[in-house]
Structure to design on (410 residues):
């Protein structure tokens, strides 16, 4: 009941909740090359015709729920999650009647790919370099035209066979590029696809994108020059769809090594998919919420997204190989509580002691896992998202007790 009242409080706004996403991220990003991965996920809440809960359509109109667009910061060298950068959470108010090409950029949902990038420039201002990465949906001309800077770059998987400045088409342009290297990689099995080997060719070259037609784009530059990196499978097995990635980037690519680096950075995009899984079935089970209003569900989603990001950070650090400090996930006052908690949950034998460097993220991960029910033994199965969820819940209760530890009751 208390949490319901908290969500219903007018002073608890979605804007302030999302501002809180990046409280630790800005400091963690200082002096690093940051990969800023952005993506959108649909949160499907169960509804009936009589109980829509104020939620709009998602997907192809068969479900009701909210959409969450998030940007996750990673260290480009280690892949460590530094936290959330920004984003938005919303539900659709109804179907838009005005045709897409008649709407201004500000009136389109796709505007989020630009506004979140602008937000990243503020949050990640102390980073040595920022590379925003997105899947096909982020291939948005306004982003190419407005976001890049001297230390601010983009990588996106091409979605549109765009017109180029010389009148040719993007997908055909790579046919004139020289194949610079061939590699064989192992593909892991996934749903609908068995594990197999794939031999891939790499080629790259500069292309100049022409501004799309329409009033919404007239204020943008007439053309933007980027580099197209294409990775493709020339001889796939019979009956198998060949692999092909067309990556657009603003990074300079002088040679094959630099091109493979772009491919490697883009592969880190899958980490944000982990975030969405932790938000849903593999961790917080957000879609099971029974809150009755869209406003409450939107605020809950913002809170849960932050919790999912912390869970991701703890999972990454659980093997003890992380060099990150606990401050990328916990503020200073909470680290003090972690230290006091660690003293109480450690056992007497060496195997029952926290084996990680004090105040490191791995050290904090061990404590939260122990609070969540993990036995702490190296031979035991590593803690998973459910364990971290329970551990964080217990830690929040401890924080409440810590806050009132010096209160004198008459």
């Amino acid at each position: 009941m208390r949490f319901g009242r908290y969500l219903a409080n007018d002073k608890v706004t979605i804007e302030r909740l999302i501002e809180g996403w990046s409280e630790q991220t800005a400091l963690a990003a200082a002096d690093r090359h940051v990969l800023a991965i952005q993506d959108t996920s649909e949160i499907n809440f169960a509804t009936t015709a009589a109980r829509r809960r104020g939620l709009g359509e998602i997907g192809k109109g068969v479900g009701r729920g909210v959409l969450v667009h998030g940007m996750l910061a990673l260290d480009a060298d280690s892949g460590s999650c530094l936290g959330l950068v920004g984003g938005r959470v919303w539900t659709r108010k109804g179907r838009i009647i005005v045709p897409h090409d008649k709407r201004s950029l500000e009136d389109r949902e796709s505007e989020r790919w630009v506004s979140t990038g602008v937000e990243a420039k503020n949050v990640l201002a102390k980073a040595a370099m920022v590379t925003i990465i997105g899947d096909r949906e982020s291939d948005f001309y306004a982003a190419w035209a407005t976001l890049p800077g001297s230390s601010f770059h983009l990588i996106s998987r091409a979605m549109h066979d765009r017109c180029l400045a010389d009148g040719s088409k993007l997908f055909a342009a790579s046919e004139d590029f020289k194949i610079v290297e061939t590699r064989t990689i192992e593909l892991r099995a996934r749903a609908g696809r068995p594990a197999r080997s794939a031999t891939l060719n790499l080629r790259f070259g500069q292309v100049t994108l022409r501004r799309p037609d329409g009033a919404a784009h007239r204020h943008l530059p007439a053309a933007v020059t980027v580099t197209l990196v294409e990775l493709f499978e020339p001889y796939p097995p019979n009956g198998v769809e060949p692999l092909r990635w067309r990556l657009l980037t603003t990074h300079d690519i002088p040679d094959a090594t630099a091109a493979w680096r772009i491919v490697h950075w883009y592969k880190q995009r899958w980490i944000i998919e982990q975030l969405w899984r932790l938000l849903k079935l593999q961790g917080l089970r957000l879609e099971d919420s029974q809150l009755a209003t869209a406003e409450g569900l939107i605020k809950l989603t913002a809170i849960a997204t932050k919790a999912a990001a912390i869970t991701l950070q703890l999972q990454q650090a659980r093997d003890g190989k992380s060099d990150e400090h606990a401050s990328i996930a916990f503020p200073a006052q909470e680290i003090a509580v972690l230290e006091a908690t660690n003293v109480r949950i450690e056992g007497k034998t060496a195997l029952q002691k926290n084996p990680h460097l004090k105040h490191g993220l791995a050290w904090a991960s061990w404590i939260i896992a122990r609070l969540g029910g993990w036995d702490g033994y190296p031979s035991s199965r590593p803690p998973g998202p459910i364990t971290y969820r329970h551990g964080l819940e217990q830690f929040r209760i401890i924080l409440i007790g810590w806050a009132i530890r010096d209160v004198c009751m008459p």
